[in-house]
Each structure stands twice: as structure tokens, then as C-alpha cells.
Design goal:
It contains 13 helices and 17 strands. With about 425 residues, the protein is of the alpha/beta class. The protein folds into 3 domains: about 1-110, Methylthiotransferase, N-terminal domain (Rossmann fold, 3-Layer(aba) Sandwich); about 120-360, pyruvate-formate lyase- activating enzyme; about 365-425, Nucleic acid-binding proteins (OB fold (Dihydrolipoamide Acetyltransferase, E2P)).
Length: about 425
């Protein structure tokens, strides 16, 4: 979502006549589009901003945007006096005004609304890739998981008008995009805040799949509670919709899930996984897991371990719990030591590594569809892309295949990357 916001802001700045610079030493404006999800993300930005304050770059116009703007507000000016503006996630549309104000007045400017009310110029975004990109469909989150800062930094759920989404996708297809990722903190809530539109997430998917030239659709991310049978059926039946669904479990013990306010039990989660796999046998499921949530016992962690082993996710993002200011979980002591958190994380990482190895082995000899993204950095005779299930594949081929879909037969792997031979181009 931050990358998408960055591209929207880059588009606004380019329309103002600015050009993008990849050289921090030369840029006149430096914008830090930040994340607050874990302490590590915030510390990285604070460290970098501190360094800039001590360098000659402190005279550039410096802005802090994104979740840290909403989480830290004016305190950013106090800690970092060289920051010129602070612009929250709901105020991106005001970037021009804020820059004008900073330039004209030589004063600081801050906007950190709690609710997203102004549509952004997504069509004018300056996108990094010419092949695959993201389309924002809903912003904010109403789920209030007790560990998570997002409902406070990005505000309540606000769906985007389906006609605007369809139009953006149509234009992106016209521009040659082959893969679109629909974005939201919880895409499955799409339309819940706008009942009169009568458009649920799966309805939107059916509309988008019908667009001529639509090749691949992905979406990110989902809350298990809102993964409906209709959505599963859409994944099974729509040609362009990839059979890869992020389905964040977070923890494997009912007591911890309840304390996290995840509003499902392990059994309910498993039932959804079983239904999904029954309806769409080739579906690949991804997950997020947090270890060391306050009061998580060894036995409860073992339940998470056992569940991950049982489900065999095809992709897992694993995190140590990080206390976030303003969240309900801050009320509870962060009582799992760093050492234990790290031990638990390492155990899950090596379990997931075993699962990946087993899955890679099972894929050998099979054929997959790859969207070719680029030549490999090591050898231009080899090209690289991803399968519908987001697996990275390398095979022999020339640059002119970039942007095409190729059938590849897999014969090996190197680390996480699958290796194969091209069998055919997809017509
Ligand atoms: N600590 C650790 N991980 C977190 N996540 C969200 N908040 C926290 C936190 N306070 C993880 C969740 C979420 C992912 C985007 O980040 O697993 O799904
Ligand atoms: Fe955070 Fe996701 Fe929970 Fe929303 S659903 S509060 S974004 S973890």
C-alpha cells in the first residue's frame, strides 16, 4: 500500500515539474514514505532522518509521509527539527498545497486526518513497473486486532467506487500491464461501507475478470473471517484470478487468537482452509504469523508450530511481536523475552524452509505458467518471472520474452528459485 501511495505522490510531483532522482545527494525534495507496523520499520526511518539532519542534505525540503506521520504527528518536528512537512496517509491529496506552503512560508506544515475522504489521482501515478502494478480498492481497516497500529494510522475502511477501479484497470491493461494486484488492508471487506453500491469483493472480481486483455489478477490482503465461499468460487472459476491467497493465521492457539481479537478460532480457520482446498484443489495459501504475543506460552507456540506443519503454507511471513503505541496490546506486558521470541521465530523459519523444500521437490517435472519480468542479473541469457502462485522461476531465454507468458517445465531449484526449460509460449 505504501508503494502504491509512493507512486501516486511521485505522479503528483512529476506533474508539478519535478523529476525523480535516485541520488539522495542531489534531490531538492526528500520524502520518506514510512511504515509503523513494527518498531524496526520506524527505527530505520528515524535513524536515516537523524543522519540527514547531521548532513548537508538537511537544507533540502524534507517530508515524512505514511503511517509514521499519523502515529507520531508533531513530535516528529520536535525530534527532527529539519523536517519541513508531515503528511498522513489520508492527506496525500494535499501534497501540492503543503509543498507550496513550505516553499512560500519557509514554515513547517502538518496534515494528519483520521479518515480518508479525498480520492487520489491513481491514474496519474508514476509507476515503477511497466508490467505489473497495484490498484488500491479499499483503504483503512475496521478489524482492530489488538497488536496492530493500522486502524489508527490508516483510519476506518473506505472503499473506492467500483466504476473508478474498473476504469483504472482498463487503462492499465491498455498501457500493457499484465498483472494487477488489488490492494487493501482487508480487501474482503470491500463494499461493506457502501452497501448501496451492491458490490462485494467477489462481484468486483467478476467485473474485472471480464475486462478484455485482463491477464492476471491478484489481491492482498485478506482477513480469514471475510473469506467467503463466493470468493473461493471466484478463485476457482475466474481465468485471470491467480490461485494464490494470502490467508493470515497470526497464531495457532485459541486463547491467543482471542486476545489478538482475530475473531476466529483454530477450528473455524481450518474449516475454511479445507473448504478452499476442496473447491480449488490447486490453491496456494500464504500466511502471516506473529510469535511472542504477550502471554503466549511455550505450549501455545507449539500449537502454532503444529498448525503450520499441518497446513503447509506456500508462503509465510513470520514476525516477532513488536509493541505499538496506542494499541490495546500495549496494556499487556511484553512478557516474552527477546531470546524466546527469537527462538520461536527461528523454529518457524526452519519449519517453513522444510515445507518449501518439500513443495519444490513436488513441483519438479510439472509445468507452470510464468510471466517473464526481466533477465537475471547474473546472466542475460536467462530470464526470470513468477508463476500464478507467486513462485520465482528462472529459465533460458532472451530479453524479448519479457512481458510474455511462458509454459516452463521445472527440473530443479536453487535456494527459493525454481529452474526450468521453456516448453511453449502461451497464445
Ligand atoms: N508486531 C509484529 N507483527 C505485526 N504485524 C502487525 N502488527 C504487528 C506487531 N505489532 C504483522 C501481522 C500482519 C503483518 C502485516 O504484520 O502479521 O498480518
Ligand atoms: Fe492490522 Fe490486518 Fe488486523 Fe487490520 S486486519 S488490524 S491491518 S492485522
Amino acid at each position: 500500500m505504501n508503494e502504491n501511495d509512493t507512486e501516486v505522490m511521485a505522479g503528483m510531483l512529476e506533474r508539478r515539474g519535478l523529476t525523480r532522482s535516485y541520488d539522495e545527494e542531489r534531490a531538492d525534495v526528500l520524502i520518506f514514505n514510512t511504515c509503523s507496523i513494527r518498531d524496526h520499520a520506524e527505527r530505520k526511518v528515524m535513524g536515516k532522518l537523524g543522519l540527514i539532519g547531521r548532513s548537508k542534505r538537511r537544507n533540502a525540503i524534507i517530508g515524512v509521509t505514511g503511517c509514521m506521520a499519523n502515529a507520531k504527528k508533531e513530535s516528529l518536528f520536535r525530534k527532527l527539527p529539519h523536517v519541513d512537512f508531515v503528511l498522513g496517509t489520508s492527506n496525500i491529496h494535499e501534497l501540492d498545497t503543503v509543498l507550496d506552503q513550505v516553499i512560500a512560508g519557509g514554515q513547517t506544515a502538518i496534515r494528519t486526518d483520521t479518515r480518508f475522504t479525498h480520492e487520489l489521482d491513481y491514474i496519474g501515478a508514476s509507476r515503477d513497473s511497466k508490467l505489473k502494478t497495484s490498484v488500491s480498492i479499499i483503504r483503512g481497516c475496521d478489524k482492530y486486532c489488538t497488536y496492530c497500529v493500522v486502524p489508527y494510522t490508516r483510519g476506518p475502511e473506505v472503499s473506492r467506487n467500483p466504476d473508478d477501479i474498473v476504469e483504472e484497470c482498463r487503462q492499465l491493461i491498455d498501457q500493457g500491464y499484465k498483472e494487477l494486484t488489488l490492494l487493501g488492508q482487508n480487501v474482503n471487506s470491500y463494499g461493506n461501507d457502501q452497501k448501496d453500491w451492491g458490490c462485494h469483493f467477489h462481484d468486483l472480481l467478476y467485473r474485472l475478470d471480464k475486462l478484455p486483455g485482463m491477464e492476471r489478477i491478484r489481491f492482498m490482503t485478506s482477513h480469514p473471517v471475510d473469506i467467503t465461499r463466493e470468493l473461493m468460487e471466484a478463485v476457482g472459476s475466474l481465468d485471470s484470478l491467480c490461485e494464490f491467497v494470502h490467508f493470515p493465521l497470526q497464531a495457532g492457539a485459541d486463547r491467543v487468537l482471542k486476545k489478538m481479537h482475530r475473531i476466529y478460532t483454530v477450528d473455524e480457520y481450518l474449516e475454511k482452509v479445507a473448504t478452499f482446498r476442496e473447491l480449488v484443489p490447486n490453491v496456494c495459501l500464504g500466511t502471516d504469523i506473529i510469535v511472542g504475543f504477550p502471554t503466549e506460552t511455550d505450549a501455545e507456540f507449539e500449537e502454532t508450530y503444529r498448525l503450520m506443519k499441518e497446513i503447509e503454507f506456500s508462503c509465510a511471513f513470520l514476525f516477532e511481536y513488536s509493541p505499538r503505541n496506542g494499541t490495546p496490546a500495549m496494556r499487556w506486558r511484553d512478557d516474552v523475552s527477546e531470546e524466546v521470541k527469537n527462538e520461536r521465530l527461528q523454529r518457524l523459519l526452519s519449519l517453513q524452509e522444510e515445507i518449501y523444500a518439500k513443495q519444490r521437490q513436488q513441483m519438479l517435472g510439472t509445468e507452470v505458467e510464468v510471466l517473464v519480468e526481466r533477465t537475471t542479473s547474473r546472466d542475460p541469457k536467462y530470464i526470470k518471472g513468477r508463476t500464478r502462485c507467486w513462485k520465482s522461476v528462472v529459465f533460458e531465454g532472451a530479453e524479448d520474452l519479457v512481458g510474455t507468458f511462458q509454459q516452463v517445465k521445472l527440473h530443479g531449484y536453487s535456494h527459493q528459485t525454481l529452474l526450468g526449460d521453456r516448453v511453449a509460449s502461451r497464445s
